[in-house]
Amino acid sequence: MPRVGLTTARVVAAAADLADETGFEAVTVSALARHFGVKDASLYTHVRNLQDLRVRVALLAGGELIDEITTAVAGRAGKEALAAFAGAYRAYALRHPGRYAATQIRIDQSLVADSPALRRTAEITHGMLRAYGLTEPDLTDAVRLLRSTFHGYCALEATGGFGAPRDVRASWDKAIDALHVALENWPRDEGADG
After folding, report:
1. What is the pLDDT of residue 124?
2. Band of the pLDDT at 188, cuts 50, 70, 90?
3. The pTM is what?
4. Rg of the chain on CA atoms, in Å
5. Which helix (H) or strand (E) element contains residue 182?
6. Cβ atoms of residues 65 and 92 within 8 Å
7. C-alpha angle with apex 128: 127 to 133, nearest 5 degrees?
8. HSE on the CB side for 9, CA within 13 Å?
9. Of 15, 22, 96, 142, which one has the greatest count of Cβ atoms within 10 A?
10. What is the pLDDT of residue 189?
């Protein structure tokens, strides 16, 4: 029987908060049970196992992230949309390090297809990139470029990996300028649609 007051949503939200406090890899069913003052078994009525818990945190965080990005890019196009998208991405990654780490795990494609938040992520990202005239397979390549740039920058910034005296925000702005130029001058794949 589920413990009164515990719901799957509450368990997942607490796991996401714990990830931000202690790191995503430190989130375990036992740590979460201690947080609620219950035995591990009490949580298994809400999540199947640790992997299920981590995927649920990833889906929660992915939904939060795309909500922030959607708000930021609304009514914008081109470089302005790119800068807003990137800024929302970076702000979320730095504000919620554990949740952000959760968004980087590999999720089974069937779960991705069933997730409205992850489908919305693809729609928003592709919509922004279509303003640059990109179609497949260039869309996929551009998404990979943006994701790796944003992720790499955020990961380095979060760990203090930029030691030069130049302002980190100024370098971020230059990176967005460079990405905009790259997207405007994208080398078109001969097999691209359209």
Report:
1. 95
2. confident
3. 0.91
4. 19
5. helix 168-184
6. yes
7. 85
8. 1
9. 15
10. 58
Using left for φ > 0, alpha for ψ between -120 and 50, and beta otherwise, residue 103 falls in alpha
| Residue 59 and residue 118 in contact, taking contact as beta carbons nearer than 8 Å | yes
Q: What is the full DSSP assignment across 99-155?
A: HHHHTTS---HHHHHH-HHHHHHHHHHHHHHHTTT--TTHHHHHHHHHHHHHHHHHH
Compute the distance between CA of residue 140 and CA of residue 75 in angstroms, rounded to an integer: 23
User: In 3-state terms, what secondary structure has residue 179?
Assistant: helix
Q: From CA 96, how far away is CA 89, in angstroms rounded?
A: 11
d(CA 36, CA 27): 13
Residue 15 carries which DSSP code? H
Number of residues assigned to the chain? 194
